[in-house]
Amino acid sequence: MTVAVDFRNVDIVFGADQAGSLALIDSGATRAEILEKTGNVLGCAGASLTVHEGEISVLMGLSGSGKSTLLRAVNRLNVVSRGQVLVKDGDGTVDVVTCDEATLRRLRQKQVAMVFQQFGLLPWRTVEENVGLGLELAGVPEAERKERVHRQLKLVNLDQWAKKYAHELSGGMQQRVGLARAFATEAPILLMDEPFSALDPLIRTKLQDELLQLQAELKKTIIFVSHDLEEALKIGSHITIMEGGRIVQTGAPEDIVLRPANDYVRDFIANVNPLSVLTAWNVMRDRRDLEHGKDGWVWLDRRKTTRFKIDEHGLVAAAERDGKPAVWVSCADVEGQPEELAQVFWANPGTSLKTVMLAMHRSQTAPVALFDDQSRFVGAIGIRDVLSAVLRR
Amino acid sequence: MDPISKFLVSYRIPIGAWGKALFGFLTDNFNTVFRAFSNGLNFLLDGIVDGLLMLPPVLLIALIALLAYFLQRSKGLALGVFIGLLFILNQNLWKQTVETLVLVVAAAAASMAIGVPLGIWAAHKPKIYRFMLPVLDLMQTLPTFVYLIPVLTLFGLGNAPGLIVTIIFVIPTSVRLTHLGVTSVPKAIVEAGEAFGATKRQLLWKVELPSALPTIMAGLTQSIMLSLSMVVFAALIGAGGLGTEINRALGSRRIDLGLEAGLAIVVLAIVLDRMTRIGVGGKK
């Protein structure tokens, strides 16, 4: 996978005494200590993060954790004190920290677009004039600009509103204008600084869905700042958690939920519904960890209620539940099955934990088997695995 | 007198003497330059006044009312302007009013032309503004009579020195309001401009100035009003117009003449204010 943005040991300090603050950072001082000794504010320290092309990388943290500060280093709205921020530019990369003004402007016009929390629309301009801002600044001729602007407005369903002024639109619509303005530049990298935080919850969910839909088509590289873990888990393919200017954990959404690095992260995920992120794969016991009997029989659960006979190809040859022969049925068909039948449900590793739990419920807490794409048996989920995942024990 | 005061008085700083020496130096060495400037300016202003007075007054009044309509798209305003100016004509003060009008418009235009760029500069360079502030305070609060004297010695009598003292008094307002307008552009939209790759010049013309426009236009209206308030002082050093009438009324204790000329100034003020007002919120 190609790297789109690479943060390398990025330190950002706001204030006059840069050298003194950097020395304190090196000695491991906290933000409060640096503020007390130098009067400078630590934005972020030692931040290293690689963002690959086409992924949505979410920076998470409480306010003041440095997440926006790090994001704004990508287009140098915040000046980096030390370190590198490498941004993909055509076939090469540019270090935003050291590049000259002309290069920076070209990056801002063509490579990196931004969406703001407070929308940042110009109130004296119409919707279409706002969407065309980036193209206008880059000197795109008017005819081409008009055409690109209207394509973007169609994309976000605002073509009826092109001639209205920004303040005549609702908050959700204004942020769609903000999105269209960013898309219009056709920049492959998108910076989103809490874009949906100022919106009410219903509109927020709707715009998140729209963003995911657009992303499926446009395949941008998105760096997304959020303080809302539900949002991060929903849209992020990669999540980075920050505290006091430093990165404390980075990984896939389910890594964060299942293996929080410290108490700060644990507090963060305390109120998250694990069912919205976990899949069968995250909670299953591997077939090698299951208890094997003789003649190829394998117990699926610890209570030994259910077992499979596995043939030499890894396929299931027979199933038995409570000592009686049983059938094995896909979780996808859980609704259509008569309840009295002795049955064992199976799922794919990617099936959501929610679906697995429904299957368990239907089958009087029988374990759920997991098959891979070739229907080979790969593992099983018992009731205890589900409970410990939900309770994070 | 107590000893400390006595001591201080005996070492008095010769501010007055220094100032006098400075102006003496300027008049001795650059007198021809100042006079040439003054003569040229007088010639220009008198020429404009004469040109406007060649038109039949009713025609000129109708043209101003038409301009009011084009600026504000309001028939009511155009009618009001027409009636107001007819009232001045009726009081037989038309010549003086045209003289005052030319002086006021010239002073407001000049102070905007100088004040707006200074205000933008000050807004971008807070340090410059710190140096500018005491000068602006001085220009606004130094009693007008004090700088009438040096201006008189440098530029002589006439419309030109009147224009210059008016500009000195009015510039601080346009500087301050432009500074206010540009510094209170919301940070979010400045950043939006930067994030999409605006140059400094693009940022100024496409973001800062449009956003500050309502405040800058308030500066224009204020400049016009303050220029009008200087009319009487400018008349003391030979600028013509309604101010001259008021000074004459004061000298000869003519209540009637003073009232007529005073009302004419008020009417002119209202007309100019309504014509230059711009609705806040732009094109809406």
Automatic annotation (TrEMBL), chain A:
GO terms for cellular component: ATP-binding cassette (ABC) transporter complex, substrate-binding subunit-containing. Keywords: ATP-binding, Nucleotide-binding, Transport. It catalyses: a quaternary ammonium(out) + ATP + H2O = a quaternary ammonium(in) + ADP + phosphate + H(+). Signal peptide: none annotated. The keyword ATP-binding applies. Its EC number is 7.6.2.9. Pfam families: ABC_tran. GO terms for molecular function: ABC-type quaternary ammonium compound transporting activity; ATP binding; ATP hydrolysis activity; choline transmembrane transporter activity. GO terms for biological process: response to osmotic stress. It comes from the Bacteria. Residues 29-269 form the ABC transporter domain. SMART domains: AAA. SUPFAM superfamilies: CBS-domain pair (SSF54631), P-loop containing nucleoside triphosphate hydrolases (SSF52540). Belongs to the ABC transporter superfamily. The complex is probably composed of two ATP-binding proteins (TmoW), two transmembrane proteins (TmoV) and a solute-binding protein (TmoX). This is Trimethylamine N-oxide transport system ATP-binding protein TmoW.
From TrEMBL, chain B:
GO terms for biological process: choline transport; glycine betaine transport. Keywords: Cell membrane, Membrane, Transmembrane, Transmembrane helix, Transport. Its main location: membrane. Residues 97-276 form the ABC transmembrane type-1 domain. One of its GO terms (cellular component) is ATP-binding cassette (ABC) transporter complex. SUPFAM superfamilies: MetI-like. Gene3D superfamilies: MetI-like. GO terms for molecular function: amine transmembrane transporter activity; carnitine transmembrane transporter activity. It is found in: Cell membrane. CDD domains: TM_PBP2 (cd06261). The chain crosses the membrane at residues 51-70, 77-94, 100-123, 144-171, 224-243, 255-272. It comes from the Bacteria. The keyword Transmembrane applies. InterPro entries: ABC_transptr_choline_permease, MetI-like, MetI-like_sf. Pfam families: BPD_transp_1. Belongs to the binding-protein-dependent transport system permease family. This is Glycine betaine transport system permease protein opuAB. It comes from Mesorhizobium metallidurans STM 2683.
